Amino acid sequence: MVSTQPSSFTAAVEAAEKLVQPQNSQSFSDPFSIVSHEMSNLAKSISNLIGSGHPVLNRVSSYYFEAEGKNVRPLIVLLLAKSLSQIPLEQRNRIKIDSLDVTDQKPFSGTPSQTVVAGKSVDDSLSPLSILYGINPKVILDPLSKPMDRLPEFDAMNGILPKQRRLAEIVEMIHTATLLHDDVIDSSDSRRGRPSGNIAFTNKMAILAGDFLLGRASVAIARLRNPEVIELLSTTIANLVEGEFMQLKNTVIDPAAENSIDNDGESKTVPEPSGKVPTKTHEYTVTKPVDFDHETNVNAAFEYYLHKTYLKTASLMSKSSRAAAVLSGAQSDIIDNCYEFGRNLGLCFQIVDDMLDYTSSDSAFGKPSQADLKLGLATAPILFAWKERPEIGDLIARKFSQEGDVELARKQVEECDGLEKTREMAKLYCQKALDNLRVLPESDSRSALEFLTNSVLTRKK
Ligand code: FPP
Ligand code: MG
Prior knowledge:
Oligomer: single chain
Bound molecules: farnesyl diphosphate, magnesium ion
């Protein structure tokens, strides 16, 4: 019988970890400390954006914000914002800092744009409230968030613009919406050490709450009043869905997946398009293997996996990092590197997540561990094993659905050093992300980003 004890895997991971020590040992050990005030107010600020007129909707949409999450996405945005503020203002003239960016303390000595925009702050509406509130505007139904309190003074003092701070909140709202949906899709039972939203409420409520968070995030995005940022963030929402779809229907490993749907173990045929509406598959769809030799198949599977990983995880990190740079007015080289930083860090983050799925226990992870194989998902560790042993292709193709498949796959991963190879892959992206940060001026916030990047690689949960 194959051993499924996590101990041998844990040992393998520990051995792999010894290969990778954080390279930039910093004098501080907590990147949170640099933006601690913003981070500690994050949940409260978000709660101001998500109040609704329905008490149960309020409970389900705030549910995941009540428990301590990693908050890595807003942390990246805030630390980048602070790092970008170290660039001299005369080099940050790509966009003019407008009146919405300037608090009473006027931290920026440059001249704010005189452009007159509707509303006075990122909390004000663009459309008349009578339209946004719909019927019965002032009584019980109160579908829009109330303006927040005046932005705190420390925002002005530490260089993080109000729009960047709002960006951090938006990113966490979008991420939380995806978690509510993801837990329904994965039939998860726990998240952040508590019953997941689908269990604590219902599938229907979890989905609706996710949609509601997206709606509120979209309002907040519009109020940033920056078309480039609106485009970036709206695209991430589409990317997240595309990534999840790629995970649901792996058309590289299983070409028949294009025409069938697995509905809780029952196979259904996908309806044929009527032809009335032209469907367009974009050119960024990955190439399917043309030859069916082993190497081509494995390469196509890795390409598919990385593309899915970008869409599912790295898109939000990269595009929000880019948005933080756009809002700072930095030059295009800086903006491009911020984007690449978020992309490389996001890929590293998800690859490590996929590795931890093999090694963590539920209690350490705060969510179901060792779930991917049971869900039929072929992530990097098993793909590396497949590269060595072509016969693993059968297991992958049948999504580890037969008795003993999951245990067999774990054994193959162990024997082929799949976890160590996965960690090496994550390490490459980690190093690229560190390189991208070098375009930013040296500062505590840049060091904090370097520390954070290294800890993504060495994290245990
Ligand atoms: C977690 O993956 C899931 C994501 C990072 C993205 C999920 C995206 C969707 C459900 C699409 C719907 C999107 C929107 C915009 C609402 P995981 O299952 O690998 O991680 P986990 O172990 O934390 O569950
Ligand atoms: Mg999941």
